[in-house]
Specification:
6 helices; about 190 residues; globular; mainly alpha
């Protein structure tokens, strides 16, 4: 049974949709990114905090939702107004967005069992994503064959960051489940 109030489920679903690249299957990637950022916004909204980071993270998720439509439509309709720069901009903004998400999670998990796991996941995630971003940025400057290999390396680093975030989600989900079970027991 799915818990529709579990913010961590929305966060990992959002990351999965953003990570999923439908263009690899010949389909436009518009809906996947849009749903991903929408899921992020819902998950952030459900997080138990009233900190400014929550408001900024949610606004950034909604902004990325709109920007993803613009950039993906540009790519899909072959206007190529933004080209590779638009894709790089979206990746940079996604990394900045995840910085805010992790800062919010660190604020929420402060002095809780998840604080250290959140911090370590944040450090590793940022290293992987920033490395992939830099590799992809440089890949544009090489000939096609070398560029494809560099893109493959960057994709592998992004896959590792996705798996890391998914592993982190499992710990958060377990913690969320324990808290809700304890709340249910105290109400009885």
């Amino acid at each position: 049974m799915t818990d529709f109030k579990n913010p961590y489920a929305y966060l990992v679903t959002g990351f999965g949709f953003v990570f999923l690249d439908m263009s690899l299957f010949g389909l436009p990637d518009i809906l996947a990114d849009f749903l991903g950022y929408l899921s992020f916004a819902i998950g952030i909204h459900l997080l138990p905090s009233s900190h400014n980071l929550k408001r900024w993270s949610k606004k950034l998720a909604l902004m990325l939702m709109v920007l993803s439509i613009v950039v993906e439509l540009d790519q899909w309709l072959a206007y190529k107004v933004f080209g590779e720069i638009g894709i790089q901009l979206m990746q940079f903004l996604f990394i900045a967005f995840m910085y805010y998400v992790f800062q919010l999670l660190l604020h929420i998990h402060h002095n809780l069992p998840l604080e250290m796991k959140t911090f370590k996941t944040y450090q590793r995630f940022m290293i992987l994503m920033l490395s992939a971003f830099v590799i992809q940025a440089f890949a544009m400057n090489f000939d096609r064959s070398i560029g494809e290999h560099l893109h493959l390396i960057a994709l592998f680093l992004q896959l590792l960051s996705y798996l890391l975030f998914t592993w982190y989600y499992r710990a958060c989900h377990k913690y969320y489940k324990e808290i809700n079970t304890n709340k249910a027991h105290t109400l009885e």
